[in-house]
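Example 9 (inverse folding). The structure is encoded as follows.
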């Protein structure tokens, strides 16, 4: 009886491991967040700080995305042509999407959205992910950005 129980337990455990490895390797967000802030500044075409005004969902060519309307307060780097922009991110954190809270202050390390190698809507639409330093506003990150960008 004990051997039958152990065989059953071992079989369940083995299937659990196989399923976890398959899910983890195929669907998880994988990015190298060990980048320094300087490397992130160099790799981001636009960096800005603002307040999240609204959140919506959008079904785009890239898949289901979150669309955040951001009131831009400070531009650290790049061309941001409007005081209010839309930042898209993947809907799922498993696909590197990032969540912002409405009415929160954020810093966005963003890329412009291109279609057929042309900018969409004159630097008003951007994209970001968990693989950047984007997130809630922090004074320490603001100071680091000012320091790094000021030395350019």
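The amino acid assigned to each position is listed next.
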């Amino acid at each position: 009886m004990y051997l039958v129980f152990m065989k059953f337990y071992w079989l369940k455990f083995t299937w659990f491991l196989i399923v976890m490895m398959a899910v983890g390797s195929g669907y998880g967000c994988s990015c190298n967040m060990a980048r320094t802030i300087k490397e992130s500044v160099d790799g981001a075409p636009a960096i800005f700080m603002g307040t999240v005004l609204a959140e919506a969902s959008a079904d785009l060519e890239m898949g289901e995305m979150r669309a955040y309307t951001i009131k831009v307060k400070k531009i650290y780097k790049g061309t941001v042509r409007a005081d209010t922009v839309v930042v898209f991110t993947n809907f799922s954190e498993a696909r590197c999407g990032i969540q912002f809270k409405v009415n929160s202050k954020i810093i966005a390390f963003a890329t412009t959205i291109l279609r057929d190698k042309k900018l969409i809507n004159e630097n008003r639409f951007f994209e970001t992910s968990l693989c950047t330093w984007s997130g809630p506003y922090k004074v320490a990150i603001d100071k680091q950005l000012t320091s790094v960008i000021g030395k350019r």
